[in-house]
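Annex B. Sample input.
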Amino acid sequence: EPAQHFSFAWLRAMPAGRASPLHVDHPYMNRGSERLVTCWTPLVNVGPRDGPLFIAEGSHTWPDMRCAFEGLDVDRDPSRPGHIEESAITLAARKNSRFLTTEFQQGDCLIFGMFTVHGSFDNATRTGRIRLSCDTRFQPAADPMDELSSRSA
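Annex B, continued. Sample output.
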């Protein structure tokens, strides 16, 4: 079916020593379509030491993650964290899962749903290189659009 994308894109600059916490996107984007997806695109080549994105294998099917985060809107309820407080290693062991990643090339696209558990590894480069990436969102054109789709930064 026809799709549309948010006019707003989230540029991410991850300097050395930083990582994105373990999370699902739903608490940050949930005022529109339930069929929203994220497209993560590296703007530079991203190797294992550059802080690549990872996803928890099979996490989009975990009912406890959906239950924990469905309906949470971090802008409207800032007292609840939008990220997963359990450590990645503990979560993977408890779920008998693993974290999947790869070496990404500039312009690759990783597409996943709002309840896919993901984050990024530490940018461990010693050169001071910044990992640049962009998050864009897509959904069916007929579905209601989240007000965040066109917010200004």
